[in-house]
Specification:
The protein has 400 residues and is an alpha+beta fold. Helix content is 50%, strand content 15%. The chain has three domains: 20-133, Butyryl-Coa Dehydrogenase, subunit A, domain 1 (Orthogonal Bundle), CATH 1.10.540; 139-240, Butyryl-CoA Dehydrogenase, subunit A, domain 2; 248-394, Butyryl-CoA Dehydrogenase, subunit A, domain 3, CATH 1.20.140.10. It has ten helices and eleven strands. Strand 6 (184-191) and strand 7 form a beta hairpin. Helix 6 (248-283) runs antiparallel to helix 7. The radius of gyration is 22 Å and the shape is globular. The chain starts with 25 loop residues before the first helix and ends in a 6-residue tail after the last helix. The model has no long low-confidence stretch (mean pLDDT 94).
């Protein structure tokens, strides 16, 4: 009798081909391991259903809070501290399972909390940041408008007018993640007196003249609840104006940090699509053997992994520059533009590996493919980020 061959042991899908996680110390790797365990064990089993239903999984918020990652990169006020590098790896790990959860986290911990941390007074930081760390208060970031997206730096239509000890805000904001249900909004408006952009903390549920309409029928990041904020003679006390912000340059400090966050997030999205495609290819059989054994499939897998590895190396260096105090706008812009383009290629190839099953939610790749389109556009389009880089390297501004 012939001996039965033992079953082939296949390598587990792993998108960290260059072992990039080893740049973290042991404590940071332990934090990342906790995040991965939560995302794979708690989020992954339910997220497709929430995506299909266009709903946010509020029952996951306590689990995210218990990870003690909200406010990573900020010191004091209950924040856990840590490096920009660790924050980037967390973003990547969240997005590796779901880009919507990563976006929810980035909007709250990065954009909203970052605005207060960088531009708020000491009193404002003491008041708002601790409950935001505990996710007792959740924030959003209101910059983009229905008629103003890429041109936010030069022409916000939302206005702020000083009236004694209060400010009167009028205008609209669009595509504001978390806004249909969160507690506070960071609203950026143009001061009619000096024409400068200023930031305001608006308490959503108690401020007259503030309303939100949820944006329906999205085909990307469906778990994230985006809204259109309308401000009609919305009165905000002077104590809620971000005291350290006097112009759009102050707003740009926050965007510089979060733009690099999106680069990390896009790498995570690529990793998730690749790992799901590889897992599928190892088990899906055609012509009597797994499709992962076919040359053309292996070519796609290698190209995906090349995109991911190049992007990982770029964002790691980006975070190191930030931690060294050397990060410039053009550094963040190049990473955001490059990594999202590579992501778009990667998720497309992942869908190609799955054939027709690549458009079915059950296999996950379809979700990564759809969500990638939002990551590709927000926090500055590829074109706008390319012009920021072009100006820096050429000395000429090509902005119209």
């Amino acid at each position: 009798m012939s001996e039965t061959k033992p079953p082939r042991v296949l390598p587990a899908p792993d998108s960290d081909f260059y072992m990039i996680h080893q740049v973290l110390n042991d404590e940071e790797q332990a934090i990342l391991k906790k995040v991965r365990s939560f995302m794979e064990g708690t989020v992954a089993p339910v997220i497709n259903q929430y995506w299909a239903e266009d709903k946010f999984p509020f029952e996951l918020i306590p689990g995210i809070r218990d990870l003690n990652i909200v406010g990573v990169g900020f010191n004091g006020y209950g924040c856990p501290g840590g490096s920009t590098l660790l924050d980037g790896f967390i973003a990547m790990e969240l997005a590796r399972v779901d880009s919507s959860i990563a976006t929810f986290y980035g909007v709250h911990s990065g954009l909203a909390m970052g605005s207060i941390y960088l531009g708020g007074s000491e009193e404002q930081k003491q008041k708002w940041l601790p409950p935001m760390v505990r996710l007792e208060k959740v924030g959003c970031f209101g910059l983009t408008e229905p008629l103003v997206g890429s041109g936010a730096g030069g022409g916000l239509l939302t206005t702020a007018r000083r009236d004694g000890d209060t400010w009167v805000l009028n205008g609209q904001k669009r595509w504001i993640g978390n806004s249909p249900w969160c507690d506070l909004s960071i609203i950026w408006a143009r001061d009619v007196d000096d024409n400068q952009v200023k930031g305001f903390i608006v308490e959503n549920k108690t401020t007259p003249g503030f309303s939100v309409a949820k944006i329906e029928n999205k085909v990307a990041l469906r778990v994230v609840q985006n809204g259109v904020i309308t401000l009609e003679n919305c009165r905000v006390p002077e104590e809620n104006r971000l005291q350290g912000d006097q112009s759009f340059r102050d707003t740009a400090r926050v965007l510089r940090l979060t733009r690099q966050y999106v680069a990390w997030e896009s790498v995570g999205c690529s990793m998730g699509a690749y790992e799901n495609a590889l897992k599928y290819a190892q088990t899906r059989e055609q012509f009597g053997k797994p499709i992962a054994s076919f040359q053309m499939v292996q070519d796609l897998l290698a190209k995906m992994l090349g995109n991911i590895t190049a992007s990982q190396c770029m964002v790691v260096r980006l975070a190191q520059l930030q931690d060294q105090g050397k990060l410039k706008d053009e550094h963040a812009s190049l990473a955001k533009a490059f990594c999202t383009v590579r992501m778009r290629e990667t998720v497309g190839w992942a869908r190609e590996v799955l054939g027709g099953n690549g458009i079915v939610l059950d296999y996950n790749v379809a979700r990564f493919m759809a969500d990638s389109e939002a990551l590709y556009s927000y926090e500055g389009t590829r074109e706008m980020n390319s012009l920021i880089v072009g100006k820096a390297v050429s000395g000429f501004s090509a902005f119209v």
